[in-house]
């Protein structure tokens, strides 16, 4: 069976190719995808929309009813119809993730998952990002979380790269060196 990300990739790429020329359309598309992804993350919605007794039009009607006041652009409506017809609606979270990655790559930006042992204020985050951007050679969008189990220091994840200067990581390295 094909990997989920492999199946979702062509949909994300096609949608991105359709909107990438217009920055406003790209931003609107990201917002609409996030709303749809949030909706599809609900267990009841996934179960209801994957009911084999429903026709494609019924699935779309249910989805539109669940969206209530939020209107989808005609482009997104067509995209959702395509997903429903190809039985790929449950892939929306993966498609959204891949679409955002394509958008970030086109903008020359990468998401930086910063985990700190202690809360960081905005100035500290800005200083950290300023120090990290030359290291990763790309503009970073920080997403900061706090994890007291790190004991001290930070862990930064940018794509496949991990920079872990936490006390926990240092203790683990010391333990591994002593055991070896």
From TrEMBL:
Matching InterPro entries, A to Z?
ATP_synth_OSCP/delta_N_sf, ATPase_OSCP/dsu
Q: What name is this protein filed under?
A: ATP synthase subunit delta
Alphabetically ordered keywords of this record: ATP synthesis, Cell membrane, CF(1), Hydrogen ion transport, Ion transport, Membrane, Transport
Q: Where in the cell is it found?
A: Cell membrane; Membrane
Q: Does the keyword Membrane apply?
A: yes
Describe its membrane topology: Peripheral membrane protein
Record lineage: Bacteria, Pseudomonadati, Pseudomonadota, Betaproteobacteria, Burkholderiales
Identify one Gene Ontology CC term for this UniProt entry.
Answer: proton-transporting ATP synthase complex
Coiled-coil region: none
Native source species: Orrella marina
Q: Name one GO molecular function term.
A: proton-transporting ATP synthase activity, rotational mechanism
List, alphabetically, the NCBIfam families matched: ATP_synt_delta (TIGR01145), PRK05758.2-2 (NF004402)
Q: What does this protein do?
A: F(1)F(0) ATP synthase produces ATP from ADP in the presence of a proton or sodium gradient. F-type ATPases consist of two structural domains, F(1) containing the extramembraneous catalytic core and F(0) containing the membrane proton channel, linked together by a central stalk and a peripheral stalk. During catalysis, ATP synthesis in the catalytic domain of F(1) is coupled via a rotary mechanism of the central stalk subunits to proton translocation. This protein is part of the stalk that links CF(0) to CF(1). It either transmits conformational changes from CF(0) to CF(1) or is implicated in proton conduction.
Family label: Belongs to the ATPase delta chain family.
């Amino acid at each position: 069976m094909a990997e989920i990300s492999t199946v979702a990739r062509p949909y994300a790429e096609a949608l991105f190719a359709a909107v990438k020329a217009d920055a406003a359309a790209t931003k609107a598309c990201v917002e609409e995808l996030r709303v749809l992804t949030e909706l599809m993350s609900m267990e009841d919605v996934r179960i209801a929309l994957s009911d084999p007794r429903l026709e494609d039009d019924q699935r779309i009607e249910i989805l539109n009813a669940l969206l209530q006041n939020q209107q989808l652009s005609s482009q997104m409506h067509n995209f959702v119809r395509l997903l429903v017809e190809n039985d790929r609606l449950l892939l929306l979270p993966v498609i959204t993730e891949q679409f955002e990655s394509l958008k970030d790559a086109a903008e020359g930006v990468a998401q930086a998952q910063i985990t700190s042992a202690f809360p960081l204020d905005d100035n500290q985050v800005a200083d950290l990002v300023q120090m990290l951007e030359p290291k990763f050679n790309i503009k970073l969008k920080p997403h900061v979380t706090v994890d007291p189990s790190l004991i001290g220091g930070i862990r930064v994840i940018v794509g496949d790269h991990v920079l872990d200067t936490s006390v926990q990581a240092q203790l683990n390295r010391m333990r591994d060196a002593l055991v070896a």
